[in-house]
């Protein structure tokens, strides 16, 4: 869909510049007309009915602001963009009051202007979709519609229809079921426009929430339409139940929509086969489009006698088994569900007569609904439950093997004597030395482990604080300033995710700054290594925060610092929590960077204390494992209590709001 644009400007050079931008960068738009003053523009708006009006402010006869004020009265749905060389705040304020969607300053920045056009395109397409939905609702409800509206918003001559049904025929006595003639304005409120591989279609629920009705415009290629419906069918049929899809091999005009729905729904009901997934092509003009399957050869009288006997003797389990047996046979024979329903209706009536029960018609139909509903779901639900249980057991076993056994190995060896731990096996100790071993670890080299815990905590805390502020501000600038410079800077930052750090040059720089073997030096290293990933997370999350919030804050008088720290940063709590947790665990567990950039015994970290219990000729495996257990406790606690925040923050920017 190409959107129509009207350009209003009294300077030929400015018009030519705008035309060049549209020709080179925005081919989804067409220039409907050009006007050189406000009065001429008002006439051309009425004639061409553009989607967007781009107007200069200062023009003869009628300026841009007055033009918008007058045009808004008669054409409120048009999007208006003002272009001006005036930076005066009063102009911007009045433009906002008049309902202008954007205020562009000269000289026009091409990238920013193209981004504006793309935003307008999304906004206008949403308006079109909403209008299309409203018109479809009215057609289904037999409400009179203005022909002019149909030509503008539903310009296609003909349309195709497909109905996708999950499971069997709608239950007659379910509160969720609506009859064919009830698919009207109320039920059509479920209509939503969708795109599947760039093909437009509308979808809404039919008689219940297991029935989906799809409508798509006829664009001249019937094969494409059929492929579209088949792909949608394939994408939705993996839910466990069987599906029936009816594709109407006939395009129709809009006024025929409701009649076509009723015919197709009747055809669907005649051709649903219990437990059988199928796609059926239907042409309402072809008299051969009738019942596709055959009658059953099951002995109805025999079933009637068995059911009566089981019911009268309260043999529930036998009744269930017989029901499953009969239904399985009917599935094998691909008997239409409407015939299955008729068969069981007669069985229920016969059983009621034998038991002298005065059952009403709605009692019989209600029992039949429950019978068919239970039968079609019961086997699937049991199979799904078994599959889930098996999957859960396998997952639990894998977790125990991958994580449980190694941790048990470390802990059990940490409470052994030095000689027993040297065997490095899973055997239980002859004597548990829990307190003795852990005391020895904490007392090693005048409490080096305790000092290491303090150093690791300081490095982790300060690194995370600096990382959060630097990465959040960097991500904000990269996300909000869409130009070539920012793209290049973003590339330089994110390439850090790929390139490994260079140890020797980094040591040379740290020595030059006097930060080698110091805690501030290792903090800078950790921040630099964590910056690319944190910036990526912040940038993605910021894409979900509308830029209109920034503009509103600036109009209200916020400066850049107040905008970020008072408005934007509080909104970043989910992703900030994720970065804090992941970075804390990563920095705390870092072994390589302290080894290279913080060597020596002056400032040990927890990971480097492992060397205290290892040597070339003598290793105290029990104390080494005890140290590993102590080191593992803080990140383990952090992960157990905050793992949900990690996941929520990681996916928070995945879907743009």
TrEMBL record:
Keywords: Cell membrane, Membrane, Phosphoprotein, Transmembrane, Transmembrane helix, Transport
Compartment(s): Cell membrane
Chief location bin: membrane
Annotated InterPro entries: CheY-like_superfamily (IPR011006), MetI-like (IPR000515), MetI-like_sf (IPR035906), Sig_transdc_resp-reg_receiver (IPR001789)
Transmembrane regions listed in the UniProt entry: 390-412, 452-476, 488-510, 522-542, 563-588, 621-642
One BP annotation, GO: transmembrane transport
Coiled-coil regions, chain positions: none
4-aspartylphosphate found at: 56
The name this protein goes by in its record: Response regulator receiver protein
Lineage: Bacteria, Bacillati, Bacillota, Bacillota incertae sedis, Caldicellulosiruptorales
